[in-house]
Design goal:
- The protein is mainly beta.
- The protein is built from two helices and eleven strands.
- The strands form four sheets. It has a four-stranded mixed beta sheet, with no helix packed on it. A three-stranded mixed beta sheet has the order 8-5-9, with no helix packed on it.
- A hairpin with a 5-residue loop joins strand 6 and strand 7.
- The longest helix is centred in the N-terminal third of the chain and has 7 residues.
- It starts with 8 loop residues before the first helix and ends in a 5-residue tail after the last strand.
Length: about 140
């Protein structure tokens, strides 16, 4: 299920995609290979005015006033349980709830966010994860 279809590697590098759900971001690294070590970037993203999409749409750029795109998913953290840093950045930590948008249940499982301007993203942490085969 793609909200953002890139035709070439160049177009793909022109945008950044992320989620507020670690489980969703974790799915991206399954393509990367069989290494026992994985890396995750934790970033602050200035989303600005968001274009919210419940259904897939081909997007390569944004028109004013939009600064980002939110591909709405049917599962996400409860925003009322978010914590806020002193600079106003919201950190979603709530339990996962089913979300409806104006009575519609989105096709995607999780919210995803897209920005085209790298200056909207501030990398805060690089986290290294090691997978264990233990059950």
């Amino acid at each position: 299920f793609f909200f953002f279809k890139q035709k070439t590697a160049y177009e793909m590098l022109r945008s950044l995609v992320g989620s507020e759900m670690c489980i969703r971001d974790r799915q991206y690294d399954e393509i990367a290979g069989e290494s026992h070590y994985k890396f995750m970037l934790c970033c602050e993203v200035a989303l600005g005015d968001m274009l919210e999409l419940v259904q897939p749409k081909y997007i390569t750029s944004l028109n004013a006033p939009y600064k980002s795109v939110k591909a709405c998913g049917r599962n996400g953290p409860n925003p009322q349980q978010s914590i806020y840093l002193p600079n106003g950045t919201g950190v979603p930590v709530g339990k996962v709830d089913m979300i409806r948008y104006h009575g519609h249940v989105p096709d995607a499982n999780f919210n995803e966010y897209l920005v085209f301007d790298q200056s909207q993203v501030r990398i805060r942490y690089l986290v290294q994860l090691k997978e264990s085969n233990e059950q």
